[in-house]
Amino acid sequence: MMAKLRATRKRLSPQASVLGVGLIVLLVGCVALFVGMTDYTDHTERVEATVEERDVDIERDSDGDRVGKDITVYVDYTVEQESYRDMQLYGLGTDDYHEGESLTVAYAPDEPEHVVTPRSTEPGAYDLAWYAGLVVVVVGVVITAVGGVMMRLRK
Q: CB of 144 within 8 A of CB of 135?
C-alpha cells in the first residue's frame, strides 16, 4: 500500500520549487519592511515601571526539540495617579528585563496604556529591519522572476 502511495505522489519540478522559494523570500522581505516602518518617536513621555511578569514560551517541534523561544514582559506603572497593571511592554530589547526589575518606559501622551522601551523611540531604531527587508524583497523578486521564466521555458 505504501509503495502505491509513493508512486502516485507528485514531486515539484525544480522550476516550481524556485518559484515557491522566491515567493517565500518575498514574503519574508515584506514582513521585514513592515517591521522597519515601526515608529515610536511619538512616545515622548517617560515613567518608571516595574516588571510584574516575564512569560517565557518555549516552542518545540514534533520531535520535542527546541526551535524557538517567545518572551513577553508585563509591567506595572502609574501615570497621573492612574495605575496601569500587567501592561505588555513592546519595542526593542523587551526580553532583557526580568520580574521585579525597575525600568523606564515610554508612552505617547494620548496613549499611556501602550508602553515601549525607550531605545525603541529613537529616530531610526528600526531602520536596519527596513533596509534588510528591502534587500530581501529585491532578492525575492529576482528569485521569483527566475522561477517564472524557468516555468515558461519549460512549457
A: no
Of 98, 44, 91, 56, nearest to 75 by C-alpha is: 98
Q: In this structure, what are the phi and psi dihedrals at residue 135, rounded to the nearest 5 degrees?
A: -60, -45
Q: Average pLDDT over the chain, rounded to whole?
A: 89
The segment with the largest mean pLDDT, out of 7-11, 37-41, 141-145, is 141-145
Rounded Cα gap, residues 132 and 34, in angstroms: 11
Helices (H), the chain: 2-8, 14-36, 127-154
Q: Does residue 45 contact residue 112 with C-beta atoms inside 8 Å?
A: yes
Asked whether the beta carbons of 75 and 49 are under 8 A apart, the reply is yes
Under 8 Å between Cβ of 72 and 99: no
d(CA 82, CA 62): 45
- Has this prediction a pTM greater than 0.70? no
